[in-house]
Amino acid sequence: MISNLLKVQRAYTRFQEMNAVVVAAVNGACYGSGFEMITACDIRLASADARFAIPETCFGLAPDMGGTQRLPRLVGPGQAKRLILACEEIDAQEALQMGFIELIEKNYEGLQARALKLAQQIANNPPWAVRFGKKAINAAADSSIAGGLLLEQIQSAFCCGTQDQNEAVAAFFEKRKPVFQDR
Q: What is the separation of C-alpha 72 from the centre of its chain, rounded to a whole number of angstroms?
């Protein structure tokens, strides 16, 4: 059992650690393992009828796929304890208010379109800048302000020397879409 659990934990952690930005789009019920999975995603969107719960505790289990570690970083320890220990179900509006999700769309079609649009907006940016932004934001949860600022300095110095950064500036001034080479 532990080896299977470790595999799932590693799979969910990959969402956080990969260079790509992971956008979750939730329509309908998102409970238990699915709930824990989306805590590892970078951005979470939901349809207006989405519902969220992490009910493991009411079944005599502890959340074991990262929920106790990631959820408090998203919503704070008090809200995480309420959701995990009381097994409360929340709707999309409450999830938005507490910071668990970033956006609500009225229906599935709008949700799908908004998630794809957001993913495309991110993909249209220079790859190194996106990677570094994601890594620095993730590191902020685990480091001091001084450490985070140092990481920003290092990332900024690297990006200023890339061909993609030069292309981004040139395309802006030439009023054209940039063509990035991941260099």
A: 14
56 is catalytic: yes
33-92 pLDDT tens trace: 999 999 999 999 999 999 999 999 988 888 888 899 999 999 999 999 999 999 999 999
Catalytic one of 36, 94, 167, 174: 36
Catalytic residue among 17, 56, 89, 174: 56
DSSP 57: G
Is residue 102 within 8 Å of 45, Cβ to Cβ?
A: yes
Distance CA 161, CA 116 (A): 30
Structural tokens at position 83: 């959701």
Under 8 Å between Cβ of 105 and 114: yes
Q: How far is CA 24 from CA 27, 28, 130, 172, 175, in A?
A: 10, 13, 17, 30, 32
Is 36 part of the annotated catalytic residue set? yes
> Amino acid identity, residue 157?
A
Q: CA 100, 104, 110: angle at the middle one, nearest 5?
A: 140
- pLDDT grade for 130, boundaries at 50, 70 and 90: very high
- Helix or strand or coil: residue 176? coil
If one compares 132 and 143, the residue with the highest pLDDT of the two is 132
Asked if residue 1 has pLDDT above 70, the reply is: no
- pTM value is 0.85
